[in-house]
Design brief:
2 copies of one chain form a homodimer.
Chain A lengths: L1 H16 L3 H10 L19 H12 L8 H22 L3 E2 L2 E2 L1 H5 L1 H20 L6 H25 L12 H26 L4 H28 L2 H4 L5 H4 L5 H8 L2 H11 L7 H13 L2 H21 L5 H15 L4
Antiparallel strand pairs in A: 1-2
Helix pairs in contact in A: 1-4, 2-6, 3-4, 3-8, 3-16, 4-6, 4-7, 4-8, 7-8, 8-9, 9-15, 12-14, 12-15, 13-14, 15-16
């Protein structure tokens, strides 16, 4: 991922430099390149660059040079940062990568504007890609942007749904949301890399599917960490998700089991105030006892397997395919 | 404009129907089709549809059928509504077309999300346009989206600039902001209509220029109404702009004149609290006395003339060109 970040950086820097200086400053902060004062903050809180790496490996996997996929890598990275900026506003999340979120550091309005700037530039960069594939690439990215918005809409709407009864969120509905919100962009990264690398439609679709499954596995791991993760490693408070009353996969599985456990969970989660330490720990223990943790680990494994199978069933350049497989494992390694 | 709205409506309805139902509901509210409960509100507070009309007339002006420009009309209308939704969040404007703004009716987060949905779909619709012009159209729209963000960034940054001295906003800087924020999308509407109608690059550029000048004239009229408009006609409080401490063209012209008037204006505007009725009326009177109103009327006329000249200097289909000229006059008629 380090190698991919180095490869993409000049184009990413150029893309940010083309923004209005103020939105560019916020973008540099969000990307972890600068502090909230606009001063360089090298090695600050840069993301891992999973999406960039997927785009470059997508091109290499179809026998093209990684350079072909650089516009795709820049576009998916900008879309990722745009969605983080706006999601943090919508979810009122004050922290991002251990630092104040952009809306906390610069204000809500400016954070919305910086997100808009990144959204527009992401599409612009792909639209300006030389060669015959720009049109198909833009159409694919637009479909992904629709998916991201749908996923965020579904996630926000889950908040108003009851914990149990006929209106409750089902694990299947949660999976659809996660595919839109997390899977679509990972799939798009791989697919765009392959597309700009000149791959046939069938290969592009297979890589999109692999990335979507990777995203679902990633989200399952995230849900495990949000419920039982070590605060030292996650940078979030212990039992962060139940504290926020977030409807995640392990919780929904435990609730769908019904019985006494589900009743106690509903009682704990329906308390008008946020859970205290003891209450949050009790929720986590009940969900684990009801099999929510094991089911989520299975969900992660199942989607990782499906992602690998999608790679294996597609004729790909062997070295890049091995690297992709290793990247998939690495991304999921956070489970252990 | 009525005729154009009827022509575009089925495609616009279809575009909104493709959104996630929740963002679609907010879009229908923003478009004036429905109340905040999602129920149809026919003839509610629909916009005039200037941008849609410009797109269709852009195609007819280059001898094409208006139908060719429908994707352009839908795209610019969606971009317009997207920018209103986000601008109202950033500017904390609670009213839009006499009704609560989307963020007031649905919440800030949902309004941001609905704007994102419209932004993404606008580009998507243009990218899916059949025929050979989709790529060029998307690139042009992306440039316009960059301009819109720059214009909004400049406008927001003006708030922190001093009323006088070396850091004060100049009338020329204001004009650049207005071209980005208002002119770019009007120019884009005309240009995209012509582009999808198969016009050569030179004609597309000339129509873009005409639309940009129209936008600058429109903004000048808006500034006059914001300072001296009849609240019965504008739907805004009397002297709305000076009350909000907004740096508009007439005010900047008056301030740039210096002297005793500028000093009194700065004293009035630098008061820590918002102006009362008397103070706002005094600002409006001082600006008029200092020639700010006349200069802004000249600015509007100059840009309307430039817009007309750009039309006249381009070989266009005569009927459509006449209609465009009439539309320009109509849009500006609010001056009198």
């Amino acid at each position: 991922m380090e190698r991919c970040r180095e490869h993409v950086r000049p184009a990413l820097v150029e893309a940010v430099a083309r923004l209005h200086p103020w939105t560019g400053e916020m973008a540099a902060y969000a990307l972890g390149w600068a502090g909230p004062d606009g001063r360089p903050e090298p090695g600050g809180s840069e993301g891992k660059g999973v999406r960039q790496a997927l785009a470059l490996l997508g091109a290499e996997a179809v026998g093209a040079d990684a350079a072909e996929a650089v516009p795709a890598a820049v576009a998916v990275e900008l879309v990722h940062v745009f969605s983080l900026l706006h999601d943090d506003v919508m979810d009122a999340d004050a922290l991002r990568r251990g630092r104040p979120a952009v809306w906390k550091a610069y204000g809500t309005g400016p954070a919305v504007l910086a997100g808009d700037a990144l959204h527009a530039r992401a599409v612009g960069i792909l639209a300006e890609t030389p060669g015959p594939h720009a049109g198909a690439a833009v159409r694919r990215l637009c479909g992904t942007l629709d998916d991201l918005v749908s996923g965020q809409a579904e996630d926000l709407r889950f908040e108003d749904r009851p914990w149990h009864g006929p209106g409750a969120v089902t694990p299947a509905q949660y999976r659809t949301m996660a595919e839109h919100k997390t899977g679509a962009l990972l799939g798009c990264a791989l697919a765009l890399g392959a597309l700009l690398g000149g791959a046939p439609e069938r290969t592009v679709t297979a890589l999109d599917r692999a990335g979507r499954h990777l995203g679902l596995a990633f989200q399952a791991v995230d849900d495990i960490l949000g419920m039982w993760g070590d605060p030292q490693l996650t940078g979030k408070p212990v039992h962060a998700d139940p504290r926020r009353g977030k409807k995640t996969y392990p919780l929904l599985v435990a609730l769908s089991g019904g019985g006494e456990t589900a009743r106690e969970l509903v009682a704990l989660l329906s308390a008008p105030r946020s859970l205290d330490d003891e209450g949050a720990a009790r929720v986590a223990a009940l969900v684990a006892d009801a099999g929510g943790r094991a089911a989520t680990r299975d969900e992660a494994r199942r989607h990782l397997d499906a992602a690998r199978r999608a790679l294996r069933d597609t004729p790909l350049e062997p070295t890049a395919a091995r690297r992709l497989d290793a990247l998939f494992t690495h991304v999921l390694d956070r489970t252990r």
